[in-house]
Design brief:
Layout lengths: L3 E4 L4 E4 L8 E5 L2 H5 L1 H21 L1
Length: 58
């Protein structure tokens, strides 16, 4: 089964590990998931930030 990676430097999806690790996000099970890598990371980061704010307020 193919693995998909998002290259943060070129902003392209790669099939298989081809670029240096420090340029990649993944692996992802589908091309579509890899294409959404940055938006998924931003959404998760925002959710974690909100959870931290709520935890500090308690």
């Amino acid at each position: 089964m193919a693995e998909y990676w998002f290259n943060i430097e070129t902003r392209q999806v790669e099939v298989g590990h081809r670029s240096p690790w420090d340029k990649l996000m993944g692996p992802y099970p589908t091309r579509e998931a890899a294409e959404r890598a940055l938006s998924t990371a931003h959404e998760r980061s925002d959710a974690w930030d909100e959870a931290d704010r709520e935890w500090r307020e308690e």
